[in-house]
Amino acid sequence: DDIFAKPVVLHTTRRRDPNDPSQSIFTEESTEDLWKRWLLDPNSSRKQAWDMFIGVLIVYSVVVIPFRIGFQVEDPVGGEKIFEYVVDGFFWVDIMVNFRTAYYDINDDAIVTEPESIVRHYMKTWFAVDFCSIVDFEGTMKFFVAGADSGGAFKNAKALKAIHLLRLVKLVRLMKLGQYLELIEEELGIPPAPFD
To answer: DSSP readout, 37-83?
Structure first.
């Protein structure tokens, strides 16, 4: 036996009974067992690293969006625009990741690994926040207003400013940042801030 091998951590999980899909069974599974079924353990190092990365992108958004609105900075172009699309792409990927991330059920004291239950749980919790934060409401409004505008009223400065404020919807990501900060505090053993 290799003395340097990482110990396998087993979790009590709830999943569908392969012999009777209408029933759930409780079993012991490792993070690797979940990975084989294309599921992420919410406590795995992979998921925690992903959450920290998404947390950094949220901080970026929370700083850049108000700056652009407050100082009336022009819309990004060139490489900066591409970077914005990449950031939004990562937020879309995060939605897909969350649809495959198991969750802890306090009532069963187990990690739920049933895909249908995971989807239902995500749809009831963070999905609306995640979805609203990546939809380009500003671009959609510009498209519809410009399409309906034949007299040039769209160029009205007040209408443009109002449409730019739709970017603030992306700041709903802040709600998730608290969750990520708790994760970082817990993993790094940092005591909570005095104002928590």
So the answer is: TT-B-TTSHHHHHHHHHHHHHHHHHHHHHHHHHHTTPPPP-HHHHHH
Confidence at residue 195, expressed as pLDDT on a 0 to 100 scale: 46
The token pair at 136 is 């380009």
SS3 of 122-140: the string is HHHCCHHHHHHHHCCHHHH
Nearest to 173 by CA among 121, 124, 131, 122: 131
What are the residues whose beta carbons fall under 8 Å from the beta carbon of 190, sequence distance 6 or more? Answer: 184
Residue with tokens 């947390």: 55
Q: How many Å apart are CA 81 and CA 114, to the nearest integer? A: 39
What CA–CA distance (Å, rounded) separates 35 from 46? Answer: 10
pTM exceeds cut of 0.85: no
Provide CB contacts within 8 A for 189, sequence distance 6+: none
